[in-house]
Specification:
Elements lengths: L2 H11 L2 E2 L9 H12 L16 H17 L6 E6 L2 H13 L5 E6 L2 H10 L4 E7 L20 E5 L1 E2 L4 E2 L10 E4 L16 E5 L10 E6 L16 H6 L9 H16 L2 H22 L3 E3 L11 E6 L5 H10 L2 E2 L10 E4 L6 H13 L3
The structure holds 4'-deoxy-4'-aminopyridoxal-5'-phosphate (PMP).
Length: about 375
């Protein structure tokens, strides 16, 4: 079967992929990525077998960085990096690069990954929690008021993938604001100048797992008195243009293809519209259907990317999963810490998939 035939066969299978990450990517991106594994742009070599310093790969990473820069309208003093290590690694990088020996890092505990970031940072010094919704299983985004003015940085997580809450308005502060945007980057308007650093594991709205996108204000680095290991110092990564060590080449290449797909399809503006449409449709069903209940009840805190819900009668769980399977709905099971169901609806998802899920819910137990 040719790659094209494989892609068409996959499309005809009609699986609706609600996976939380790694997750859905556009089929045309995957087809092109698959081609590149055999022969990258007809150069007679695979993307998997060329040097990261080859002119072909340097052009790829440069273009990916430029597209991020243009898409997010970055001020000149911001740099774009593609690093290894995932979002979890970046939470450690955060503490290394922004926390001084006697200083304090402030964290908003809005979900499992936010809490992990906070706990990981504790190894390096004084870390405080400034807001939390943990006592209610993160069923709301914690209220942010009276942010500290005497800390080295404030860390927030914009969208909490597991509990399905999301911050709607980013806080304004003079303290360096660091944001883990792993699960909602490229789905909303961002004024990057509000942040000292934004990071995101690629494996949701950007590409396959492997790369971590970092957008960093150069002027806010180098303020700590801490000795930073060479590979963890963001200034070194900036100086070497993401090539301090071998970058995750394939993941970066697919991220580039996906960025191009996004731009061709209307950019963040259109992605924003689509994710609003999908999430509104699903929340409407959850709220209107007496069998279901949203995990996040506070309307203002509801995620547009990860919609978490439960069946009020948990004895129906198995039956509901069977109905989903019959309708080819995949990846809908909630995270084990929350239970129930989670519909992750990232940029590549079509509204038809959301409609398929809503239809299962509408007809369930009729
Ligand atoms: N932050 C958020 C918001 C996440 O959803 C995840 C999981 N993908 C992580 C951090 C951890 O990411 P990684 O597995 O790339 O370290």
């Amino acid at each position: 079967m040719s790659l094209r035939e494989l892609r068409i066969a996959k499309e005809n299978q009609g699986v609706h992929n609600f996976s939380a990450g790694p997750c859905i990517l556009p089929n045309e991106v995957m087809e092109k990525a698959a081609e590149s594994v055999i022969n990258l742009d007809g150069i007679g070599l695979s993307i998997l077998e060329i040097s990261h310093r080859s002119k072909e790969f340097v052009a790829i990473i440069e273009r990916a960085r430029t597209l991020v820069r243009e898409t997010m309208n970055l001020p000149d003093n911001y740099e774009v990096l593609f690093l290894q290590g995932g979002a979890s690694y970046l939470s450690i990088i955060t503490a290394q690069n922004y926390l001084s020996k006697e200083g304090t890092g402030a964290y908003v505990n809005s979900g499992t990954w936010a809490r992990n970031s906070m706990n990981d940072a504790k190894v390096f010094g004084n870390i405080i929690e400034i807001a939390s919704s943990e006592s209610t299983q993160f069923n709301t985004y914690p209220e942010l008021k009276d942010l500290p003015t005497d800390v080295d940085y404030i860390h927030i997580t914009s969208n909490n993938t597991i509990a399905g809450n999301q911050i709607k308005n980013f806080p304004k502060t003079d303290i360096p604001l660091i944001c883990d945007m792993s699960s909602d980057i490229f789905s909303r308007d961002i004024d990057v100048s509000q942040f000292a650093m934004i990071y995101a594991g690629a494996q949701k709205n950007l590409g396959p797992s492997g790369a971590t996108l970092v957008i960093v204000n150069k002027d806010k680095l180098g303020q700590t008195d801490r000795e930073i290991p060479r590979l963890m110092d963001l200034r070194n990564h900036i100086e070497k243009e993401s090539m301090l060590n071998t970058p995750p080449c394939f993941s970066i290449y697919v991220s580039l293809l996906n960025l191009e797909w996004m731009i061709k399809n209307g950019g963040v503006e259109e992605m924003k519209k689509r994710c609003l449409e999908r999430s509104e449709l699903l929340y409407q069903e959850i709220d209107g259907n007496p069998l279901f209940e949203a995990h996040v009840s506070d309307l203002d805190s509801r995620s547009k990317m990860n919609v978490c819900f439960t069946l009020k009668d948990s004895s129906l769980n198995e039956e509901f999963i069977t109905s989903c399977e019959k309708a080819k709905i995949s990846g809908i099971k909630g995270h084990r810490s929350v239970g129930g169901y989670r519909a992750s609806m990232y940029n590549a998802m079509s509204i038809e998939s959301t409609k398929a899920l809503v239809n299962v819910m509408k007809t369930f137990k009729l």
